[in-house]
Amino acid sequence: MPTKDPLATSGLPSLKRDDVPKREVSKEGQPIGSQFLILVVDDAPDNLAMISLAMQQQGYQVVTAANGEDAVSVAKQTTPNLILMDINLPGLDGLGATRRIRETEGLRDIPIVAVTALGTEGFQRAAYDAGVAGYLTKPIDLDRMNQLIARLLSPGGSGKL
Q: How far apart are CA 29 and CA 68, in angstroms?
């Protein structure tokens, strides 16, 4: 199966690899300013576009994936600072993708936020057991999402919400 370019995984305006600025880091190893890269994973094109645009409006760089296999591949290729992971995905679901990311050296500590319509306590427990750092239900409260992301990306951010 050919590997997809992570910058070409959505219907959003296409970017060339040279168009993506290098992420600068501070002395502490933290990305500076809008240099945070977020991987948005959702199989619904409308959700993918809405979340991606909301993240870009907050100043984040965004790469996308539409299924679990692509999410793992894109994460390996780009090493994002945070992943917004839909749970109900075709093929490898979001929990399986989260487990694979957690098993990959260099990706283990990336905060992953479950973004799903599945709001029951059982699904939340399964998501946290798989290794997510936060859980958001659809329809997404953008203010809550932005607060959670800011907490998780802050130095020493533990911020489960």
A: 28
